[in-house]
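> forwarded from #structure-qc
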């Protein structure tokens, strides 16, 4: 007999969007919400009510949520379609046209089915011995157990080290400052994203599970075994409520997009943020910091390195050897306004590092303490935690007055000085006292219950400060820590990685885990942040890899006090310059990829299986990734190689070597040359790639002329399409002022036929013609909008 069979659940009522059950023995109310035809939600509520009656994670198709959170029972934004409810002596059945859950009245054990070829097919179920922790039989924490198939694959969980498939792993769900982490083995890292995808390779069926819980906990995906149960996996949380979403898409990509939609829109960044962003801690830590930072501009100009922004590390806030947020060290930075103005004059924006913890010696510490703006220890006093350079206290962003104070400081101490962006750093909120409490917007809560919301509220406050200060321009923010919904506000990166060869390989996988978890705008510290200075070969390979990420930043804190800079190895500077110029040339491609991420929830970076799910080779472990709709990037991740073996997935039109234009058969392996100035790169046949054809230098970074690289399939009758997004690159009202260029390419045995269709919405294209360049091995005629032109000539856009 199952020991949880004593828990008999009864039907209370059926509402428009949910079914309500109750079990007196378990002291639990259970709700099954039908949010979409393919999204169900299960919420367990104790008799005393929800521990956290709001959520900050759910924002279907929205840009934001209220600072106090969204009512947890709300279904706003979901369509809540009609559904059927059936009851027998032993179970309930709830179903739509595509998703069905069977609920055993004893123990609330659930079995899930999907409609396929007119039949309901089982795809997963709760563990049948014990699935939930009702009255403490399974310990003191929240738990949800499911059956585990030994062949299943698990992907996601946000920012994780190691391989993409998480099966057999145990992962801690908590934010931590993992400086110098091992990219293959360390856990946890900086982010809290309790979402993962399960795929059954036998059936090729996949689904997502999202647990809307902000407390510390674990995912065990097969590391634990227990003789009294069959194979299982489980989610565990220290506190909060058990509230999970079952998400079923037709493909893995559909599931990712559904989850991303459900947690909110990816913010569209300004175009300048696509460029190389310089950064290093050593500049701002130096006694003559302003001189060293200013010299960076001169060196960019001297070496002709295209650079569009610079990240100002926290050394600008120092008093002696400690750092104090919102404090300018006028000895190191005597003229901060001039610094910002000088950077802007050269076309570079500054992003200033800010931290949410205040050291006990901070000039404003006592004032903030007296105002009650810090998280408290549960005994009526301010909670003190380990932080940089000693003990500090964390600002309580669930105190609305503290939240507004932070906004005022961002405006007064940064934006008024000419700083363009905020770099929200060290915001993991490492408070380990389980008695710590927060204001909770007037309803005191245990800190641990909502621990993961603090980086989100910090970035939201900074975001609001920037939008309020400069209402006509799009804000741009960076944040290291975060959780579900962080894509609504910021770009992120994978934290303080360590300089070693394997970091490139495993950082790529960590980033793809973020992509599979709805976080699309990310990158890595190129060259490695912590540890030794990268050797020349490693540094060059890292740059080759970094230019094909949404965020491209060279950042470091090397043990020998050297600095990772594009010109750090004179004999490699020419190659580095060329790689960064390639990045710059592809700006229209990247910008359109961001637009697609914002409007259609399309990931920018993908594992190859996400676009080629039916090609079983793509599910094998590899070091490749897709960047946007056209590129397959084959980064070099090993020392001492001169070529890279790449698998070209099965694609109807085939592939091309980006640099040489040679055709590559789909479903084949190819060896690509890997010189210092080239990232081994395949392009999908049929691709239309927008570029900036202007020869940009550091002195004329504003030059912009449009062109299109064409990679037509070698076969006749092949059609492909692409839509280019254009606007002024900065305005906040981009949704009302933009233009779209729809391009269609058709191949015949004699010609490449390209047609364009321009749709202008409040924004007029600054050009009416563009250069069209066909892959160099192509011999057919090129016809653009009915007129024959030679490859590399301008054609009319209409």
């Amino acid at each position: 007999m199952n020991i949880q069979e004593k828990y008999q659940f009864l039907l209370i009522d059926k509402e428009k969007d949910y079914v309500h059950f109750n079990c007196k023995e378990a002291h639990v109310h259970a709700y099954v919400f039908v949010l979409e035809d393919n999204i169900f939600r299960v919420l367990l509520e104790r008799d005393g009510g929800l521990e956290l009656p709001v959520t900050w994670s759910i924002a279907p198709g929205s840009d934001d949520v209220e600072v106090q959170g969204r009512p947890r029972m709300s279904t706003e934004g979901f369509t809540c379609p009609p559904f059927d409810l059936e009851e027998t002596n032993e179970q309930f059945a709830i179903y739509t046209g595509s998703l069905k859950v069977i609920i055993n009245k004893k123990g609330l054990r659930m079995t899930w089915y999907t409609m396929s070829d007119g039949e309901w097919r089982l795809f997963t179920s709760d563990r049948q011995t014990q699935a939930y922790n009702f009255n403490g039989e399974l310990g003191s924490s929240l738990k949800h157990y499911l059956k585990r198939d030994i062949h299943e694959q698990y992907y996601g969980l946000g920012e994780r080290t190691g391989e993409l498939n998480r099966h057999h792993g145990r992962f801690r769900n908590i934010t931590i400052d993992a400086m110098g982490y091992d990219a293959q083995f360390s856990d946890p890292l900086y982010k809290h994203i309790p979402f993962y995808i399960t795929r059954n390779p036998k059936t090729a069926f996949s689904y997502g599970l999202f647990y809307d819980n902000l407390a510390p906990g674990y995912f065990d995906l097969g590391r634990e075994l227990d003789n009294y149960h069959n194979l299982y996996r489980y989610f565990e949380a220290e506190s909060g409520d058990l509230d999970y979403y079952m998400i079923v898409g037709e493909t893995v990509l559909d599931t990712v997009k559904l989850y991303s939609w459900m947690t909110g829109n990816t913010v569209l960044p300004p175009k300048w943020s696509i460029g190389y962003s310089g950064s290093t801690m050593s500049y701002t830590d130096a006694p003559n910091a302003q001189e060293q930072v200013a010299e960076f501009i001169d060196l960019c100009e001297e070496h002709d390195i295209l650079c569009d922004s610079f990240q100002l590390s926290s050394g600008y806030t120092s008093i002696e050897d400690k750092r104090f947020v919102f404090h300018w060290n006028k000895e190191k930075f005597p003229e901060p306004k001039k610094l910002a103005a000088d950077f802007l004059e050269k076309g570079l924006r500054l992003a200033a590092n800010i931290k949410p913890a205040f050291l006990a010696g901070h000039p404003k510490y006592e004032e903030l303490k007296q105002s009650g703006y810090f998280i408290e220890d549960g005994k009526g006093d301010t909670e003190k935690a380990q932080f940089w350079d000693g003990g500090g206290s964390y600002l309580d962003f669930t105190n609305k007055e503290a939240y507004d104070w932070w906004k005022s400081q961002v405006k007064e101490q940064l934006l008024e000085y000419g700083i363009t962006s905020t770099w929200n750093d060290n915001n993991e909120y490492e408070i380990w006292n389980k008695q710590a409490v927060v204001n909770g917007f007037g309803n005191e809560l245990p800190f641990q219950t909502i621990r993961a919301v603090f980086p989100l509220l910090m970035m939201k406050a900074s975001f609001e400060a920037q939008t309020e200060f400069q209402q006509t321009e799009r804000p741009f923010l960076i944040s290291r820590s975060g959780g579900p919904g962080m894509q609504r506000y910021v770009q992120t990166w994978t934290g303080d990685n360590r300089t070693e060869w394997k970091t490139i390989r495993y950082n790529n996988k960590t980033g793809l885990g973020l992509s599979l978890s709805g976080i699309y705008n990310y990158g890595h510290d190129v060259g490695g942040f912590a540890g030794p200075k990268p050797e020349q070969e490693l540094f060059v390979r890292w740059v080759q890899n970094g230019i094909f990420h949404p965020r491209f930043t060279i950042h470091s804190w090397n043990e020998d006090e050297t600095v990772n800079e594009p010109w750090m190895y004179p004999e490699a500077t020419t190659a580095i310059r060329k790689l960064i110029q390639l990045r710059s040339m592809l700006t229209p491609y990247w910008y359109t990829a961001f637009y697609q991420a914002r409007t259609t929830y399309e990931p920018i970076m993908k594992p190859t299986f996400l676009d080629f799910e039916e090609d079983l080779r793509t599910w094998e472990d590899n070091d490749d990734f897709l960047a946007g709709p056209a590129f397959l990037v084959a980064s070099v991740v090993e020392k001492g190689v001169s070529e890279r073996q790449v698998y070209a997935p099965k694609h109807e039109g085939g592939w091309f070597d980006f640099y040489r234009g040679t055709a590559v058969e789909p479903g084949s392996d190819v060896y690509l040359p890997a010189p210092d100035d080239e990232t081994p790169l395949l392009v999908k046949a049929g691709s239309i790639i927008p570029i900036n054809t202007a020869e940009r230098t550091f002195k004329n970074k504003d030059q912009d002329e449009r062109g299109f690289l064409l990679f037509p399939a070698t076969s006749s009758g092949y059609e492909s399409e692409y839509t280019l997004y254009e606007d002024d690159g900065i305005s906040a009202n981009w949704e009302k002022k933009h233009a779209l260029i729809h391009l269609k390419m058709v191949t015949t045995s004699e010609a490449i036929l390209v047609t364009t269709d321009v749709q202008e919405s409040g924004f007029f294209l600054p050009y009416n013609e563009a250069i069209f360049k066909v892959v160099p091995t192509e011999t057919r005629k090129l016809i653009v909008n009915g007129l024959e032109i030679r490859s590399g000539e301008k054609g009319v856009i209409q």
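QC bot note: The chain has eleven helices and 54 strands. The mean pLDDT is 97.
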